Amino acid sequence: MPYYRVVGEVPRKRHVQFRRPDGGLYAEELMGEEGFSSDSSLLYHRHLPTAVVKAEAVTPTADARLEPNLPLSPRHFRTQELSSAGDLVAGRMLLAGNGDVRLSYATSDRPSELYRNSMGDECVYVQRGTVRFESTYGVIEAGEGDYVVIPTGTIHRWAPEGQVSVLAIEAGGHVRPPKRYLSQHGQFLEHAPYCERDLRAPAEPLVVEGEEVPVLVRTRGGLTRLVYRNHPFDVVGWDGCLYPFAFNINDFEPIVKKTHAPPPVHQTFEGPGFVVCSFCPRPLDYHPEAIPIPYNHHNVDSDEFMFYAGGDYSARKGSGIDVGSISLHPAGFTHGPQPGAVEAVIEAVGRGVTTTSEMAVMVDTFRPLDLGPGALACEDPGYAWTWAR
Prior knowledge:
This protein is mainly beta and 389 residues long. The chain has a domain at 249-383: Jelly Rolls, CATH 2.60.120. It contains two helices and 25 strands. The radius of gyration is 22 Å and the shape is globular.
């Protein structure tokens, strides 16, 4: 995170005695990235965060097998056809992935168990519904359009308020704002499409009583369920630059040009081997002879995974793409507007249309995406041939 926060009670100096009302010491826990040479936060627990009384291996219930995108083809997946059998963690249906990132879809009205992803950060996009995100850092109330970014190792749970649908982006490292948006000291610059004021983080501690509390932990070796002697939500205060936060896609400020701009203007986050972009309602390109629609393009270094979250997709009319759809356009395949879309948009501009209402989340990966069982279960097999109709 680019800026410092303090929540709850902390002592004036780091690593000095900080005592409970009964005279005992609070237990420090330093959460730090990159071998404690990057961002960190210092949390103060009522009980020892190291006190684990039991551990057991867990057999995954969801199918996590991936298979290559062969024969090479653009794909269309209809998440509207998927139904989750679990919560927003255990019920994730794997859509695509590679060694850098896993992309899953989940829909549920059930609270998850406590969970810690020790493989990398997560960026969870809330497509529908409202959900309470609880963690050792406190609470974030999240709703439609929110990205919730969760640092590696954060113990947390999801408590939906009714049915909630999410796209989960699980990184193999850390998810951050693009470097070009930040000063050398980490402040958002004036040309950035969002800033610190748009980010929501826990505002107060969340203290929960409990003993022998299970926590599901994911590591590169698999799944383990650790049982903690005391509830991990016992932090009375923390400070630092590492913490979960939410950012709503509606607060993204689109960058507009006279003619159509390429996807980097939509970039919102970056991770190891991938970027996340937000496509939001914006003015159409305003050159008098502009073609205000994407040109045919071939991203020679990336696979393009696009989740259509809302709005109108005039450029894709006739393809079957609708809200809830996901398209996957792999490197090696040229794609663009559907036949007739360019002429239709030029005609619409002539009638006075000046804005686009599309809302989408795109993940571009720099290694090929393999296909997961969730995607294969809801694929539209005719999508690849829609440009030839």
